[in-house]
Write a structure and sequence with these properties.
Structural class: mainly alpha
Keywords: Membrane, Transmembrane, Transmembrane helix
Pfam family, one: Phage_holin_3_6
InterPro entries: Phage_holin_3_6
Strand content: under 5%
Helix content: over 70%
Radius of gyration: 32 Å
Protein name: Phage holin family protein
Organism: Nocardia veterana
Length: 147
Amino acid sequence: MSHIDTARPGTARSGAARPQESATVAELVGTASEQLSRLVREEMRLAAAEAQGKAKRLGAGAGLGGAAAVLALAALGAFVAAAILALALVVPAWGAALIVAGALCALAGLFGLAGRANIRKGTPPVPEHAVADVRQDLTMIKERGRR
């Protein structure tokens, strides 16, 4: 039968509690090191969970956006045909098609520029809350270390 050591920092191996005031410097450093390690592991776990949640939302948004794009493309085809047919009443059919194609190219350029600007604003995707928590923890550790 194996024995598992369940002693916590600040307690003797026999299980009897030692008062925190009588803990040695080595024990206090060990406790601080263990707590810091635990804090870092927990912050990493939280950062991973936050990133995973964001990735799921991005995936769902991309899927819905793709479905919307397919439907919008079908509607756009119908609108383009209607615009060409309407303009063909005033100008020759080839001229109507050329006018509508030019207008669509101009719109595509504007949308492309707006999309590129939004992508630049959204990168890099960083787990902001976790980063802020780690920075706060580091600041607190530095302040306590100066005391």
